[in-house]
Design brief:
By secondary structure, the protein is of the alpha+beta class. 58% of the residues lie in helices and 18% in strands. β1 (2-8) and β2 form a beta hairpin.
């Protein structure tokens, strides 16, 4: 399935028509579904210590900008 999209260049009043894909290829979806159903990815990766540590590190790194902003506002 493809959808026609119009885009303006900003310098002229003409618009360019192009196509973009809106749905991934069915073959890719089938391959991903086969991977999920045929492997033990959930038993292998969920609950692994390194996955837990990585999630904690990513959470802390994502919170740092917000904490720094709050900290900087409280300093007179």
């Amino acid at each position: 399935m493809q959808t026609v999209a119009a885009a303006s260049s900003g310098t002229t009043e003409q618009s360019r028509a192009g196509t973009c894909r809106t749905v991934p290829k069915p073959r890719l979806v089938k391959r991903f579904q086969h991977f999920i159903e045929s492997t033990d990815w959930d038993e292998r990766y969920l609950g692994a210590a390194w996955v837990d540590r990585a999630c904690i590190v990513v959470t802390i790194l994502c919170c740092l900008p917000f904490l720094m902003r709050i900290w900087m506002q409280k300093i007179p």
